[in-house]
Design brief:
Strand content: over 45%
Largest sheet: 5 strands, antiparallel
Order of helices and strands: EEHEEE
Structural class: mainly beta
Distance between the termini: 34 Å
Number of strands: 5
Radius of gyration: 13 Å
Amino acid sequence: MQHRSERVMIETERYRIYGALTLPRDGYRSRMSDFLNSSDRDFISLTDVLMEPIDGGASSRHAYVAVARSHIVFALPMEEEPA
């Protein structure tokens, strides 16, 4: 199966998380909404991640982060990270 990477912003109660979500190139679960609504996974894997605390504080970068699906408040596809 061929894949593509889509930049996303995921917000939890404590963090705004920018990262790359790997999705199928086309077909089943190729949309971010399909992937996030899939009940067969409890965590969403992101790579090349920037985490910003909602209440302020220092941002941090990580090569990989797994976000619990149950903690996601909302998610958006992004063109690019904020400056």
